Amino acid sequence: MDDVWVYIISASSCLFLLCFFKLQRSNRRNLPPSPPSLPIIGHLLLIKEPVHRTLQSLSHRYGPVLSLSFGSRPVVVVSSPSAAEECFTRNDAVLANRPHMLSSEIFGYGLTTIGTAPYGPLWRDLRRLTVLQILSPHRLAGSLAIRLEEVRLLVKSFYKEAAMVAGGGGCAKVEMRSRLQDLSFNIIMRMISGKRYFGAAIDADDAEVARQFREVIKEAFELSGTDPSDFLPALRKVVDFKGRKRRMVDVAKRSDVILQGMIDELRSRRKRSDGGREVESKTMIDTMLSEGYSDDSIKGQMLSMLAAGTDTSSVTMEWALSLLLNHPDVMKKAQAELDDVVGPDRLPDEADIQKLPCLQNIINEALRLFPPAPLLVPHESFEDCTIGGFDVPQGTMILVNAWAIQRDSKVWDDPTSFKPERHEGLEGDHAYRLLPFGMGRRGCPGAGLANRVVGLALAALIQCFEWERVGEEPVDMSEGTGLVMPKRQPLEAMCKARECMVANVLGQL
Ligand code: HEM
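That is the input. Now the predicted structure with protoporphyrin IX containing FE docked in place:
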């Protein structure tokens, strides 16, 4: 009995001393300002959807570098260009870690994918592979034909749909979201595996695989938000909130089976096409097989490309078209630019995009007002550092509120208005005021591909069709919830072929 008491008293003293020293240490620290918080859950009750808006109002009260506790996880929110600059220059390496979340562990093959891996040799290798091979300018030039064909098929499908509405003067009401999602998905899938999975000329088996895969990706996205156990890790081993972990594991298994099927198919195609000898080919799977990557690494990379690269590009197009429908004068200006540079006899090519400043300004302005990743992707400090003169302890989650910076009236004139011309003459020099792709070593490696896909598709749609709103009301521009910031209402629009484009382009598709 005595032994038990000795044990209890020494354990309590140790715990007390530990808490005391921790408190002393944190009192000595100059932490960023913070709202009052509750024990154990910290500031979790303050965090309402959409999170970027909640964090913006907190930063208005507590300043551009603000500290919060999401349960036991310390968080610093950055909402000014100068603080963001510090994050991505002086502190870039220190902040290059990603926080360990339940969903990143389950969907990220145990934190071994490019987006989830901690900063270290594994991440460096995947990053090298992604930047220098899979998404290199050379490889992107090689996959141009895929993008041109997918955009041509999209234009053709709208043309057919509009032409069928004879009574309406060839003007059809079209649903845009799923079409733009299919476009981005097919482009990335073809770059990864060499096959398209949606639309015309698809074999029935592939269409079924695509349907299942799209379903799985949708479920994975829905489950990928933060889990309560990410902030209260002590509970992770004891409770499975709403069965989320079980569902995540189930979705990850289903996705793994589909991805493995794609690798196996490509492996046997490679063998068949060269009598058993491995052949040189340009899909991502081929590249990774040739370099000896394991099947799990390849599946992780496929999932990363699809998760990071499809909805981000398609929502950008959806927001941009919505803005143009609410600003027909800007749509006309973009159309005039296309008539001038491309003319009525062909569809635009990627080489044209650089000669279309009005279109580029529209895309930049859409990304400024509606960044698909409003808080970028969370970073984590692996050493103590300072931001804005405040101490940021090791293990702090860093959220850069790009959405707030891009709408800050101290940074942009009339920040909530759509004014593409504000980007004139800036030519990429946005000094941490415009950062939809993040910055620094963990910045988006797919920005070049995204700009090509979004630019090419918008150019072709604006050039070939007259677009109008479905009713008198402006298109609703409020955001819904989701991992990639969606429009609350999927976009619908009235679409009519432009007379000048019918003879030599639309009629020939
Ligand atoms: C408009 C389209 C896109 C936007 C707005 C976007 C935005 C972002 C952002 C904000 C990040 C996080 C940066 C940070 O942590 O600071 C990111 C990371 C990433 N993006 Fe994109 N992205 C887009 C398209 C793409 C595409 C097309 C791909 C590839 C096919 C891609 C692949 C990735 C990957 C792999 C990462 C993780 C990088 C790492 O952790 O090292 N993204 N993206």
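Strands lie at 65-70, 73-78, 171-175, 379-380, 385-387, 390-392, 397-400, 465-468, 492-497.
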